Model the fold of this input.
Amino acid sequence: MRPRLADVAARAGVSIKTVSNVINDFPHISRGTREKVTAAIEELGYRPNLSARNLAKGRTGVIVLGVPRLDMPYFASLAMQLITAAEAASWWVQIRQTRGERAAELELLAESRQSRIDGMVLSPLRLHESDLAERSGLPLVMLGERRFAPVDHVGIDNAAAATSAVQHLLETGRRRIAVVGGPMRSDQRVVGARSTLRAHGLDLPAELHLPVRGVTGRHGEEAMEAFLRSGHPMPDAVFCVTDWLAMGVIRALRLHGFRVPDDVAVMGFDDIPYDLAALPTLSTIAPDREEIARLAVASLRRQEAAGTPEVQHTVVGHRLVPRESTAATGPVPTARG
Amino acid sequence: MRPRLADVAARAGVSIKTVSNVINDFPHISRGTREKVTAAIEELGYRPNLSARNLAKGRTGVIVLGVPRLDMPYFASLAMQLITAAEAASWWVQIRQTRGERAAELELLAESRQSRIDGMVLSPLRLHESDLAERSGLPLVMLGERRFAPVDHVGIDNAAAATSAVQHLLETGRRRIAVVGGPMRSDQRVVGARSTLRAHGLDLPAELHLPVRGVTGRHGEEAMEAFLRSGHPMPDAVFCVTDWLAMGVIRALRLHGFRVPDDVAVMGFDDIPYDLAALPTLSTIAPDREEIARLAVASLRRQEAAGTPEVQHTVVGHRLVPRESTAATGPVPTARG
DNA sequence: ACCCGGATTTACAGCGCTAGAAATTTGCTC
DNA sequence: GAGCAAATTTCTAGCGCTGTAAATCCGGGT
Done:
């Protein structure tokens, strides 16, 4: 059997509560006692029983991270970071997947209301602000593009990031810029791109806004195919609201004989690891995921400490990462043989 | 405050234990009682307190999944499946990352020994069989290529999968086949490929075995670059032990003017989502991850039930997924303008 | 009407840990 | 050496749920 507090206490010749005090770093423990107890813990290999501790404390030690899918690398990477950040606050992360379904997101929210968890980090895709009306006092923080007034939020400034992306394209001499994304998901990014174009005396004509119903390569490829079929004059750059979309777009462009970046520059968003294995490597916007994770955990702690503190919306930084896909001149794969 | 068993009992007019019995599906409960209790639970929105339950049961309800990194899509996807499979056994999954470091893998193993968890699913990269010597009775199941005699294992037959891959390349008329992978990680796949070549009267000359020290695109690209610099005669096909490697290999090939698959076919392994966004789409081997996850959980349950049951090594199926990168003739991106 | 065995339900003792209050010891002061 | 406050340690209840064993109920047989 695993050793219990009582075993440690017996071995150290003190009371059970003293051991508990040592473990919990109470003040007022004499040096000698602390040493005796620490030694006993060491010798016995004692580890606290978390179920018992949690029961006594009325805390579960678990927070939930709700993301659409774990096999989307953006979210996988976010999960990685959140797990690390949460450990620092003695929380374990339980990952729940919503598949981007509104029903699943609502269910998570409902669960949080009656729940056995200490907090929730949610990356919602389909939730409406009104869904939050009857949320419980459970610490909750939202990630992602949309901000809901009544809840803490951590995220980058997507419009500003889109601005950097578009400016980067403009700086490399591009003028006719298409945008792949929205309407549902990536509104801020599209909005940011459009307003930046406008600020430079350019425009985002309707035919250059290619809407998608998802953010995978297939969606990007289909959107670009549709555009190519439409017969509109080609853009000289495409800004995609995710890297995955961008890969599909590049695929479609190249299948139709366009060179990237020579004929058309392509810009993504997210900075997923595959960007570097692609040909051309993908220029992108890299959100500071580590910071997002850290601040999300910080928000939960704040909410746990104060009952219902003021709502905070926090903006995290991002970086423009220029790579081959937007280079002024890029590698030209030459057919050989 | 959240309702407790006692509240439900009071409301239903029965004892606390009867409510517990209903919740735990004990036999011998009269229909009337069951209905009263169920109604009370419903009305109060009662949810059992897991900390308390786990404490009473001496079970934590948590299993650990140890993987190298969550942002490798193979493992992300595996984690996804495992979470789902574990839910069916009322377990939730705590993901731990080893970064492929032996020390981290050992640490996980050590933790399992003194631990607060019900079981562990481990996908080891650097562990030695001897490291398992003093493992505790904690249910443990290993995934991945290497089988350790004393522990349950679930995985595909990597050598057989490599055989299908190589046969596929042979069937599309390729004869000079290079292999990217190993020596550390993917031995079975390399071994399978080599023996298949041999079985067909071919060979894997040393210069066509390109070893790598990792499985990312960068590793693949560097390995292929090194080969190209070496001046050896070109292969007409490359089998890579992961898709990610394959992407890097394709990148290197195309940068040097080779067409894929026309000049060189490339075959991957894992079936990650990006395969479809690549140009060309990547032929690959798709392990049945869902089955792996399901069987891993089943193994843990079996071990939990019987004290130390017989060790089982289970083989799960895989599929060959032919795509553009190994087509007899593929799409030819034509430079335009 | 009474007894018996199986069907149902209840009482009660923990699971291992923490919190608050009480008890004890210690260090000083005079 | 007594007296007092602060420092340190122990006592005593639970946290909410489950398992065992004992109690109660019920219908049929006599």
